[in-house]
């Protein structure tokens, strides 16, 4: 059975005014199975949001393929493009900026319904009420405006809007990063509940591994526009192979103070290089504690070193 989403050698480059090329997404490949949550992680500027936006075709790709249900997203036209737009929806990072302050919550949630003309009148209203209940809000909220809600509630509204036309696939671009720590877990739990009820498939983007741990079945780690490691959540936390993944994991505090005191942290030297001027060879070599001469000479291939475990590093051949 084919995966619901397959990304093959995807590139998204931006030509800048200076004549330089920004390789925001540089030849990445991964697949997401139906009903799965794939976490995409990396520091800001690594290309994870651009990956999401290119998959959903907010950006046209530079090269490579995005296959959704077997169809190349970037070649869709007409009715097939419309179907794709219904089936893939996005939840944005900033629940303050992504909701129109002059629209009522009910009309915000019904945006997709109105664009696609799927329901009207009392059926439309009933769907909006149902969506509000599904995300833990209530009917009275439909006539209010976004500023009357907290960050967590606004993100619930953003989720209800994404669900309104019953998509199969949701790209959540750092949906909990802007929220208070105390509400992050609630929103993650809501994503999980909705997935279970509706059989949804998620691409869940985050800037640190702690945020995706409890939701992802598999995780991909990005660095400077490249995927450097992909495997199951369990394998990634138990046995990370890429030195960058190892450093990200070592930055997550461990609740047990005894363990926390005795473990070694990997502190990365230096800043993340400019994506406009990436290092030769392995993009991580300027900060990698394990770098060897060959790391400057050649970009390590992204390959499967154990079943389902992909890594791009000269230490793993
Ligand atoms: Fe480090 Fe070399 Fe592996 Fe890159 S290829 S992560 S520089 S050891
Ligand atoms: Mg981003």
UniProtKB/TrEMBL annotation:
Residues 5-249 form the ABC transporter domain. Keywords: ATP-binding, Nucleotide-binding, Transport. GO terms for molecular function: ATP binding; ATP hydrolysis activity. The keyword Manganese does not apply. Signal peptide: none annotated. One of its GO terms (biological process) is transmembrane transport. PROSITE patterns: ABC_TRANSPORTER_1, ABC_TRANSPORTER_2. NCBIfam families: oligo_HPY. PANTHER family: D,D-DIPEPTIDE TRANSPORT ATP-BINDING PROTEIN DDPF-RELATED, TRANSPORT ATP-BINDING PROTEIN. This is Oligopeptide transport ATP-binding protein OppF.
């Amino acid at each position: 059975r084919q995966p619901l989403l397959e990304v093959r050698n995807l590139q998204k480059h931006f030509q800048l005014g200076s004549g330089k090329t920004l390789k925001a997404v540089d030849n990445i490949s991964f697949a997401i199975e139906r009903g799965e949550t794939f976490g995409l992680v990396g520091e800001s500027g690594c290309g994870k949001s651009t990956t999401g936006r290119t998959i959903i075709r907010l950006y046209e790709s530079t090269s490579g393929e995005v296959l959704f249900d077997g169809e190349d997203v970037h070649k869709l036209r007409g009715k097939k493009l419309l179907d794709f737009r219904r089936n893939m929806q996005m939840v944005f990072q900033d629940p303050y900026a992504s909701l129109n302050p002059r629209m009522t919550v009910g009309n915000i949630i019904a945006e997709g319904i109105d664009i696609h003309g799927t329901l009207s009148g009392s059926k439309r209203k009933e769907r909006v009420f149902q969506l509000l209940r599904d995300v833990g809000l209530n009917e009275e909220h439909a006539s209010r405006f976004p500023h009357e809600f907290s960050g967590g509630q606004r993100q619930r509204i953003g989720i209800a809007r994404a669900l309104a036309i019953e998509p199969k696939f949701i790209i959540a671009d750092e949906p909990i990063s802007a929220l208070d720590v105390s509400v992050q877990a609630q929103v993650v739990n809501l994503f999980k509940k909705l997935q279970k009820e509706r059989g949804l498939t998620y691409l869940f983007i985050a800037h640190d591994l702690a945020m995706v741990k409890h939701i992802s079945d598999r995780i991909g780690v990005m660095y400077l526009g490249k995927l450097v490691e992909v495997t199951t959540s369990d394998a990634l936390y138990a046995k990370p192979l890429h030195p960058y993944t190892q450093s990200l994991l070592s930055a997550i505090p461990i609740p047990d103070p005894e363990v926390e005191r005795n473990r070694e942290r990997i502190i990365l030297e230096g800043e993340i290089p400019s994506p406009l001027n990436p290092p030769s060879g392995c993009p991580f070599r300027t900060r990698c504690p394990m770098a060897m001469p060959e790391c400057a000479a050649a970009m390590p291939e992204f390959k499967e070193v154990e079943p389902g475990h992909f890594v791009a590093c000269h230490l793993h051949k």
